[in-house]
Amino acid sequence: MAKPALINIIDVHIPNEQKSDDVLISQFQGGDHGVFRILVQRYQEKVRNIVFSIFNDPDAVDDIAQEVFIKVYQALPNFRFESSFYTWVYRITVNKCRDELRKKKVKRFFTFQSFEKTTNLKIENMATTTFDDENLRDVIEENLKKLPEKFRMPIVLKDIDGLSYEEIAEVLDCEVGTVKSRLSRGRTMLKDLLMPILV
Amino acid sequence: MNNLTTQEFSQIVSLYLDDRLGPDEKRRFELYLSEHPTAAREVEVLRTTQKALADSPKVAPNDWFWLTLSQRLDADRNRRSSFTVRRPAFVLSAVTVVLVALIGGIYVKDAPMFHRFFQEKKDQVETVAGSLMSGNILPLFTNVNKDEVLNFALFGSIPIDSSRTTSLQVKDAGAQGAQIRIVKTKETVPPVSVDEFAEALGISAGQREVVDSILGSYKEKIQNSVLVTDHDAMAIHAELAEMNRSMVTTIAASLEPSQRSRFRRFLDVRKAPYSVVAVNTPTVPSHILFRSLPKVSSGKKYVVISPDQVQFAEVTVDLDSLRSHARQQERRIREVLTERMLAELTETERSFAHPHSALPDDGVRVQATGGALQIHFEAAPSSPFADFGMPELVRPRSASSALRPEDGAVLRVNGDSLVSFAMPADVPSMRGLRNVTGGEYRFRVVDSVINGQRVKVFITAPDNKNKLGSILRERAAHPEPLIDLDSLLKESEKEPAAVPQKQKSGKQLEL
Questions:
Q1: What is the value of ipTM here, to two decimals?
Q2: Using a CB-CB distance cutoff of 8 angstroms, which residues of chain A are in contact with residue B387?
Q3: Maximum separation of any 2 CA atoms in chain A, in Å
Q4: Are strands B409-414 and B418-422 parallel, antiparallel or unpaired?
Q5: In chain B, which residues have their Cβ closer than 8 Å to the Cβ of A69?
C-alpha cells in the first residue's frame, strides 16, 4: 500500500495525542522524535500483554517489551506504511518473543510420558473438584504452553489478543490459509489435552 | 452433513468457533452436532477454552514503562553515537571529499539558482531582523542565586532590579491558566534562604543535595526565560508560567511524608500561593525526580512583546555568551534597559475591548495597563509528573480566585505555524499596531543571525504576506536607530536621571 499523500500534511491544530499513528510516524520520520512517546503509550499495554500471554511470566514482560520498542524506534525511520503500525509492532513483538524462546531454549517441558503422568495426577487431584474460572484458566494456559510454538502463536493472537485471521497472517508473515490450518490443528491438540480433564 | 473425518471436523469446528462459516454451513454443522453428542462435547470444551483464554488476566499496568524505556533509548543512542565516532577517520574523510566535490559541481552548474535562493533568504532575514528582535539581546536574569530561585518557587516573585521594587510575578490559577506580570511592588513576604528552608523541614544532607540540584536546574531555566533587547522588546518563555508549580511539586515529591507535612505548614504560615495537598504519597526516587527536571535546551518558544507587536517566536541564542556579555555590563545597564523597556511597553493603557467569553482556550493574552505588563496564559500549568500518573502533590491556594479577565491583545498559538492575533478595529493609536488587523497569520521559521546570535523567528507565509508583511515593509521604510549598549551605559553613568521617565505619548524614548 502506498503512503497516503495526506500524511505529509501535518495538521498543527490537532494535539499530537489525537493524531493517527501514520501522522505521528511521519512526524517522527521528519525529525520530531518526541512523538515516539505517544506511540509507545498507545501500544505499550498491548505489547506487554502479548509478551505476557506468550511467556506467562510477569517478571520477563517489561524487559522484553522494552526491547521490542527499542527495535521499533530503530526501525521506524524505514517504516513504509505498507502495513498498519499496529500489526507491524505485533510482528516485531512476536519475532522478539520467538528469539527469546529460542535463546532460552524453551521447548516443550514435558515428554509425552511425563505429560501423561502429570495429567493423570491432575485428574486424580481434580476428580472431585469443580473448576472455578481461575483454575480453569491455569489448566488451559499450562496445556497451551505444551503446544509447539507455531501452533500456539496463532491461538494466542486469535483467542487472547483478538486479532483477525488477516492480521495474524500479516503478523506471522504467512497466508490466511496457513493461519486457519494452524489454528485448527492447534485447537485440536489443545482439545485432546484438555478433554480428559474437563469432560 | 455426513460423518466427518477428524481432520474435516477440526477444520470446520475452528471456523465455527470463529464465526467464519456461512449461514448454510453453520446450520448444517449445528444439525450435525445435535446428532453427534461426542462431537458436541468437544465443541463445548473448545468453546470453554476459547472463552477462558479471552478472559485471561492482563498484566498489571506499569506507570514507569516509558521512563525506563526512555533511559534505555538514551543509552542505546549514546552507544551508537560512540560507535560512530570510532569509525575509521579515513572513511569520513573520503565521504567528505566526495560530498564537497558533488555539491561544488551542483553549485557551479546551478549557480544562478543558488544565488537567487541565498539572496531571498538574506532578504527575509533582513526583514525579520529589522522588525522583531533587533538590537542587542540580553537575558534579564544573569546571575540568579539559589535563594532567589527558591523564593520564586515558593512565592511566585523574583525581583528584576537591585532596589527590588520591580518584580516578575507568576500567578497560577489552576485550570484557569496562569499570568506573568511585571509590576512595581513592595515585598510583603520576607525572603527565605535555602538553609532556613532546609532547617525548617528537617531535610537530610542527601535530600539537601537533591533540593540543590532541583533549584540549580530551574535556575538555568529561569535565566533563559526572559530576554530583553535594547529595542524595547521583551521575550518571555512560555514555560515560565508553569515553572513555579513544577518546582514546588518536585521539591514536595523529594520529601518524606513527615517532611511534606512540615512543608505544608511552612507554606500555610507564609500564605504562599501553593499548598501541599498529598502528604502521604511515597517519596519519589531521585532518579525519577531528575528525569522530570527541565532540560536547559528544551523549548525555545517565546512570547515576544515589543511596543508594536506581540509575536510568538522561536528564539535560539547562545545564552552562555550572552550572560557573560551581560555580566560584564552588570546590573546597571540591565536596569536601565529594563526600566526603559517597561516604560515603553506599559506607558500606554492598552485595554482593548475584547469580550472574555470569546477568548480562545489556548490563547495568550497580553495586556499593559497601569504601568504593568501582564501576560495571561489560558492553558493550565501542568505537573512535572503528570505523565507518570502521580497524584497531584501541590495545588494553587487561590485557584478559586479567578485571574482578572483583563482585555488585551490576544495571541493564539496553534502548533508551530499558525498564530491568530485578535485585535478589535478600534485599537488606540499605537505605533505599528495601527496597521495590525485581527486575523490569522501563518508563520514559518527562518534562521537569522542578529549580533552574532542565531535567532529563529517565524515570518509570514506567502499566502498571508499582505497582512503582517505591510507592517514589516513600513518598518523597513522607517528604520529606527539601534542603540549601542556602550553609549547607553555611558549616557546612564553621565546622567543618573537618564533612567527614562514615563512618556505621555507613544513616541519612542530617546536617550
A1: 0.79
A2: 37
A3: 65
A4: antiparallel
A5: 69
